[in-house]
Description:
This protein is of the alpha/beta class. It is built from 11 helices and 11 strands. A 6-stranded parallel β-sheet has the order 2-1-3-4-5-11, with helices on both faces. Strands 7-6-8 form a 3-stranded parallel β-sheet, sandwiched between helices.
Amino acid sequence: MNFLKKGLLILIMTAMVVSMAYAGGEQESASAGPKTDNIVVGFSCAGMGNSWRMFLKANFDAEVANHPEISKVYFTNADEKPEKQIADIDDLLAKGVDLLLVQPSMGEAIVPAVERAYESGIPVIILDGTVPTDMQTAYVGQDMKLLGANYARALIDMMGTEGKIIMLSGIAGQMSVELRLEGAREVFAQYPGIEILDTQYTGWSIPKGKEVMESFLQTYPQIDGIWADSGLMSFPALETMKEAGREMVPSSGDNLNGYAKFLVANDVPGYIEPYSTQQAAWALVEGLKAVKGDTLDKVIYRTPDQFPFEKIKEIVDMSLSDWWWLGDDQIPAEFLPQID
């Protein structure tokens, strides 16, 4: 064997040893067992394009501050792009996180990345959306089907068991959206006197919500109730009714302050059940238990407080931005986002 060939062989063997050592080290770190301190947390966020997401991050940051065992946090923003979220998750794994929280952009699209994370041996906690794979440690959040059903029951309590309603929802095909619709429809199906005139997706966009409601008002001379899974739809729908000179009707929605302010200012009945931005804090708490060796249930639901109209009058803050999230602001002031 000449000198060049011998040197090349040595280089190849050295590279193989280094590569094996690196891979072995990564595996050892990921499956080293429970940790109680010096914990590194990764949070893969779907996007930060609205105030709800800003409050989600604020509640996460406030909870991090309660845990001195956390030594470092990596936060990524996928800008609602599944391909970026896949890259983000892989990057967080390369950084050696001990816990991964994932708020999915589109759950089906990011399954391979979530499964890689789970196979690495670290706890993987899903929040605010579903990822259709069993290869995750737990889903932590709210029961979406129950939330949709609660909105429906509250609407019936306000308007009665007979009437014509419209349904306004978020993003078509998103699992959490479809589950809320499913829960609501199952409730409405129990009341033959309830007629669902139409169902439209608005992408939680206020301009789109107004556009859809304008079309509904032209098409349907009688609307007795508005089922919506967010104040981002019921707020513009009611506003459009007012602008058109139509009588405003009972509605459902989440804890958007603008929705609450509109209800109180116009004395029109409504129901609020938060889709809470505290989900990131809940997920962190449960994830840390898993890092420390606890076994978690696959699904962990929490239910926030419910606010019928009389309670809304008590909690609303007319001085705060329409884009504030009532009830999710119970954290130290230094963590609260700046919302105009």
